[in-house]
Structure formats: C-alpha cells, structure tokens
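Fold this sequence, please.
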Amino acid sequence: MMILALCLVTALVTAARPMEKPFRLEGRVYCDTCRAGFETSFTTPIAGAEVKVECKNRETQELLYSIGATTDSKGKYEIKVREDHANQLCDVMLVSSPQSDCAKPDSGRDRSRVILTGNNGISSYNRFANAMGFLKDKPLAGCQQLLQQYEQE
C-alpha cells in the first residue's frame, strides 16, 4: 500500500510540474482590407492586436487554461505554454484590434485550433496557428479589381 501511495504521489508531482521546455505557439493577425474572407495582396498586418489561447475540457467545456498575447509590428505573436494540454481542446482566438476601422473579427477566421501536447508524435515544441483576421469597415479602392483578377485565375 505504501509503495502504491509513493508511486501515485510521484506521478502527481511530475504531472503538475511545468514543462522544462515550453511549447512555442506562433501566429499572425491581419486586416482584411478587401473584406474578401481570405488573405490577398492588399492584406495588412495588425500591430498591437490582442489574442488569447484557451484550453477547455473536452466533455464539460470547462475553461482550464487561458493566456493572452499582443502582436508585434509585423502582426505576429508568440505565446509560451508551459503545460501539456493532452485531452483538452485548445483554441487561439482574437480578442481586440487597435485599429478602429478594422476591428470586426472575420467569422471563420477569428479562431484557430492548436495542438498543445507532446504525446502526439510531433517531435518539435513549436506550434503554429492559422492566421486570423479582422475585417476593414469599408474595402480599399482597387479591391474590386483585385478580386476580379482572382476570379479570372
């Protein structure tokens, strides 16, 4: 009984301890200046956008982990996650944009599912989220011509 208790305590301490090498989650935030629903050559990065990653229990949807970040001058962010989130659903999502004329999250491009566990065959601790975007209030001049070019190709 004593050996079983010792093994259980050791396993719990090991599981609760932060990872020696954290996951490095990277992504980008952009302004969809043409309101196209995808990135174009007119798309611009958003500096100072707020994002967060949340991990929830798969069955109960209870929030178990949350951490935020801000994008740099190139619209990129990096979040270090020091815990393994096996068996949890983790999403990166848009929180806010500093650009008042490009502050509406693009539905379908406002979040990205990420895998934050080392027990899945991926040897690297680097994780990459899909780019997420906000919509410009009014499309830029020239967007109609640009979108027509996409249709022709």
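The first strand starts at residue 23 and ends at 32. Residues 13-17 have pLDDT under 50 and may be disordered.
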